[in-house]
Each structure stands twice: as C-alpha cells, then as structure tokens.
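Go through this fold for my students:
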Amino acid sequence: MTHPPGDESRFYTEVLKLLLQVITSDDKLEPEELEEFSQVAARWNVPAAEVAAMLDRLRAGKPLPAPDMGLLRTRPQDVIQAARVVAASDQHVDNEEIEMLMQIRTLLGI
C-alpha cells in the first residue's frame, strides 16, 4: 500500500512522538537512543522543525506530545518494529521499556 508523501511525513512524525515515549519510559535517555531517534527521523524525512520541537520539549522537561494513536493504528506493524529498534539501540532493553512496548501493542490492537 502506498501513501501520499504528506501522509508519510505525518505518520512518521506521530511514530517519532511515540518513540520518544519509549526511550524515556525508563527515566533515562541514553546517547545511543537519542542518536538512533535522530537517525530514524532523518531517514523518514520528518521535518527538522518537528524533530527539533520534540527534542526541545524533552530537554526542557516538558510533557512530550501525545501521538495520534488513530493514525498509528493504520500501520501497527511498522510502529511496533520502529519502537523495538529504538528501544534496543542502547544494547539494553529495561523492564520499563518492555512494559512500554507491551502497552503499545495493546494500544495498537496487536
């Protein structure tokens, strides 16, 4: 299934919002996780301003933006795969991250 470019950008922006929730679920932000997040954002061509705004909120300790779960449910396998990759990017998946991945699966209906 192909999606128009604007839809792809919006979808991946929402995935990134969710990924921020995953990588901060253990109350630690490892440099490897942040690097993977940035690389994924660049690969997916998410607008740099969107990525910067998310990271600014993170660094400022502000609440992270909530992802549009309705949109994410349209492609649950893509979402969970991305979440797994980012969660494991620091070579360690904490119990909190495992719990978050399980919650995501439930929220996505898989």
